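Input for the complex:
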Amino acid sequence: MLSDDLAGFARAIVHGESPAVRVDEGYAKYSAQVALEVYRNNYRGNLHDALAGAYPVVKRLVGDDFFRFMARKFITQYPSRNANLHRYGAELAEFVAAFEPAKQLVYLPDVARLEWACHCAYFADDGVVLNLNELEKVAPAAYGDLVLHMHPCCHVLHSNYPITAIWEAHQPGAPEDFRIDLDSGPVDALVSRNNDVVAVTELTPADAAWLLKIQAGTTLGEATAETLDRHPDFDLLRALQMLVAQNVFAGFTLGATA
Amino acid sequence: MKPPATLPLPYAAGIGLRAPHYREVLGTLPRLNWVEVHSENFFGGGAPLHTLLKVREHYPVSLHGVGMGLASSTLLHEEHLSALVRLCADVQPAAVSEHLCWNAAVDMVINDLLPFPYTREALMHVANRVDRVQERLGRPLLVENLSSYLSFPHSEMSEGEFLAELTKRTGCGILFDVENLYVNVRNLGVDAEAFISAIPADAVKEYHLAGYSSCDGCLVDTHDHPVYPEVWQLYESVLRQIGPRPTLIEWDSDIPALSVLMGEAIKAQQRLDALEACHAE
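Predicted:
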């Protein structure tokens, strides 16, 4: 049966078992064992390259050899589930956080989260961008009930480490001499896409607190009131202008009353 | 913006277009007859698709899939197929191709192009899946012969016979990768002449050329070298027997400067032109 042959072949590649499928044993220049190793190396190599493509900053931070070692462990723990390689590696941040040899790099899991958000932003569907003219049709009295939808590209992340500075310092062409103070305090990062370029911007704590509530689906009125409670300096109009300019919103609905 | 109407691929040499060259190609619009891209790189739309649509305004585009797994023993991945259907609607490609291989079994996905025993059971299975893909795409699919490092004692036919039968049953075309055939000749002792005469010349719609590397005596289809003289020689022989077809230079790893790729394409073009001149005499 074809299905038995393929299952046996697949286990030999993914789990390193001896193949439970009949294969020709000897070839002119090599053995079946060599051929099997080529397939095993291809499997790991393709997944390694997918991870390296999605996590270039993590790779630069730990170096090629360590990244290869870490990727190998990750691949064993998280075998591929999708024929599209761009979907591979979502769990790297989680994995890194529990990965003993990388424990001293306390910021690494958050950098990985940021990179995955950037990777997803790059490949995310275009969707629509909020049309301000549509927003003008909403009666001012109903503003409080507005639920703003975030664009599928956009994501807000909170970290206790300066992940945006780390990310910027490891972009291609960034200056070699940089100093990053790991104790500089928490950071809120916004990932967005503008003209096909993924951007990482730092948000003020007030803007981030507000946008995190919006991201969670809270109405404009509630999100703003709760944010003002904690951050009396929060300026809704300025925040909205800044975020709309970065195509952060896809559209809106009128909350519970709609 | 709607792409220009679909035209067939010209009977000329094109190049595989990969991310490192997007900017240069769009910035300088070099003279390229056509380009081929990997379909999966543009699934989901987004920034990559915008780039491809710009490329499409200037060049015929062929979509080459590496993930459909026509021979996989799992169900045909409908989400994957839908993404390809959507991409075809956006791009209006000149050709759509996939490989004669598998990439999934039970719960395992192996992001590679894997060989399988060429049995009558496999033929029926693959033919059903090609039918389904073509039905969704509303156009014939080109199916590419594979480079293999292993063969199976219980194969009931050769790869060439399998492909010939597949085209007969489904109406699909053949993407003849000359380098893959060469790799199989060297690795598995496949008879090149038998392969060429087994496949129907009319069904062959495109050729691929690339460079391989060697690992412990096994030739590996790495697409990281120029086309080797032996492969050029085999290509010339294929051209004489099957005739000229759109020909692609593939390069996927250690990707060189665009000028190097274009130089390789010129070498293929010279061989296509020589054949033309020979026929004209």
